[in-house]
Design goal:
By secondary structure, the protein is of the alpha/beta class. The protein is 39% helix and 14% strand. The chain has a single domain, classed as HUPs (Rossmann fold, 3-Layer(aba) Sandwich), CATH 3.40.50.620. Helix 2 packs antiparallel against helix 8 and helix 4 runs parallel beside helix 6. The chain is globular and about 45 Å long. The N and C termini lie far apart (45 Å). The model has no long low-confidence stretch (mean pLDDT 93).
Length: 182
């Protein structure tokens, strides 16, 4: 039986927090892997994301050397709006255990997610702490909080500031090469 943490997001761009905090969550829970699921279109985000081909390529670069991390393009392949419940139902397999890993920012709006009550039944969510979100709930993991945000990184790139400590160097090179976020 494989124990998987399902971690979805736009990853626009993927940053070190997207790697370090899920790894800490996986270790804390004693799970085997983190399955990253890039969203095609996140239903609760207002801005259109960078094209999925770029977001997927950056995620592949950031996770390339990590045997515990895998990527599923299920939501990108499905196209349209990405709903977590649809992904969970599609990924259900006999004998495997899946838990949903979400950030504290998403936990605050969790009850607005499509069929959120069924998500709890299928994947018993756990919540990563995040700076700026004071949530006192038994689902919050006792791990270092997620500090960086993709929004900040996009702003830094647009303003010409360094993003070196916030993203994998391969991701930074990809952003420069493809002139993203300018």
């Amino acid at each position: 039986m494989t124990q998987t943490l399902l971690y979805g997001g736009t990853f626009d761009p993927v940053h070190t927090g997207h790697v370090e905090v899920p790894f800490a969550a996986m270790q804390h829970l004693g799970f085997d892997r983190v399955l990253y699921v890039p969203a095609n279109i996140a239903p609760l985000k207002e801005d259109a994301p960078t094209p999925s081909s770029h977001r997927l390529a950056m995620l592949q670069l950031a996770l390339a050397d990590l045997p515990w991390a895998e990527i599923s393009p299920i939501e990108l392949d499905r196209e349209g709006t990405s709903y977590t419940i649809d992904t969970l139902e599609a990924l259900q397999t006999e004998g495997d255990s899946i838990r949903l890993l979400i950030g504290a920012d998403q936990w605050q709006q969790f009850q607005s997610w499509k069929r959120w009550d069924e998500i709890i039944e299928l994947a018993n969510p756990v919540v990563m702490p995040r700076e700026g979100y004071a949530i006192d709930h038994e689902r919050i993991l006792p791990i270092r909080p997620l500090t960086a945000t993709s929004t900040d990184i996009r702003t830094f790139v647009r303003d010409g500031a360094s993003i070196e400590p916030l993203v994998d160097p391969r991701v930074a090179a990809y952003i420069t090469k493809h002139n993203l976020y300018r």
